[in-house]
């Protein structure tokens, strides 16, 4: 049975690695870190190390057992391109994604420099979507790294969006996700920032997905933008 998720832009999650470390401003109030600590506290075996980077060999082949096609977020509780994950383990994750061709896999990283270095050696099957997080102007360079990959679908996650990014270059990008931060200490999301990005997407005919306004109470903030839901996704 696939592992369901409340993440709006995917259907299931697969975590052959758990744990991560902070690398940029968007990491300050990391939801995965909070969740990992809670799971460790209640004795979930895969989180015995809390939020330390941990490889789970026993979970590598899990997608091969899920016969119903799913959209799968890879490492929702980590970053596949974290410096503590060996190259050969990343290669094995890609091998499984290639073999499980009936699924669509979505990878999201903040470590675009390593993604860029490994890109030529990775087997980019058509069912692998690659994304980078861009939460502020300092992180916009990640888009250039993403653009140079051989992934068939390239997407940007702007969550949590922390400031306006007027110079965002969407050439070669297939999908944009925008969202505010949620949970304790959530930083505010300005509607003008969102509308600017939505406008860029519409001008370039790029699917736009608005995930949430965020805030301490995520459900109270909701997902409506201009009175409607924006759930656009790539068609392939």
Total beta strands: 9
Looking across the biggest beta sheet, what order are the strands in?
1-4-5-6-7-8-9
Question: What's the mean pLDDT score?
Answer: 96
Outline the low-pLDDT stretches: none
State the distance separating the first and last CA atoms.
Answer: 24 Å
Helical percent range? 25-40%
Radius of gyration: 17 Å
Order of helical and strand elements: EEHEHEHEHEHEEHEH
Indicate how many domains the architecture comprises: 1
Range of strand content: 15-25%
What coarse outline follows from CA principal-axis ratios?
globular
Structural class by helix and strand composition: alpha/beta
Largest sheet: 7 strands, parallel
Number of helical elements? 7
Structure notes:
The mean pLDDT is 96. The longest helix has 14 residues. The chain is globular, with a radius of gyration of 17 Å. It has one domain. The protein has 236 residues and is α/β, with parallel strands linked by helices. The chain contains seven helices and nine strands, in the order ββαβαβαβαβαββαβα. The chain is 25% helix and 17% strand. The strands form two sheets. It has a seven-stranded parallel beta sheet. The protein has a two-stranded antiparallel ribbon with strand order 2-3. 39% of the residues are buried.
Task: Characterize this entry briefly.
This protein is of the alpha/beta class and 236 residues long. The chain is 25% helix and 17% strand.
Highlighted features:
7 helices; 17% strand; seven-stranded parallel beta sheet; alpha/beta; 236 residues; two-stranded antiparallel ribbon
């Amino acid at each position: 049975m696939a592992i369901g998720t409340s993440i709006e832009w995917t259907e299931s999650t697969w975590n052959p690695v758990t744990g991560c470390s902070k690398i940029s401003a968007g990491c300050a109030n990391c939801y995965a870190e909070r969740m990992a600590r809670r799971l460790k506290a209640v004795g979930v075996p895969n989180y015995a190390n809390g939020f330390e980077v941990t490889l789970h060999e026993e979970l590598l082949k899990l997608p091969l057992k899920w016969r119903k096609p799913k959209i799968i977020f890879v490492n929702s509780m980590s970053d596949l391109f974290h410096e503590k994950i060996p190259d050969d383990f990343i290669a094995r994750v890609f091998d499984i994604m290639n073999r499980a061709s009936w699924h669509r896999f979505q990878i999201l990283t903040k470590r675009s420099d390593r993604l860029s270095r490994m890109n030529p050696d990775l087997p980019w099957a058509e069912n692998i979507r690659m994304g980078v997080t861009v939460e502020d102007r300092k992180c916009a360079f990640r888009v250039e790294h993403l653009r140079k990959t051989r992934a068939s679908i390239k997407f940007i996650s702007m969550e949590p969006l922390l400031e306006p990014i007027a110079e965002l270059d969407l050439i070669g990008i297939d999908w944009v996700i925008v969202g505010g931060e949620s949970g304790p200490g959530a930083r505010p999301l300005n509607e003008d920032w969102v509308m600017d990005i939505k406008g860029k997407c519409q001008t370039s005919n790029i699917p736009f997905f608005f995930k949430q306004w965020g805030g301490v109470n995520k459900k109270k903030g909701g997902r409506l933008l201009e009175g409607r839901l924006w759930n656009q996704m790539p068609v392939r």
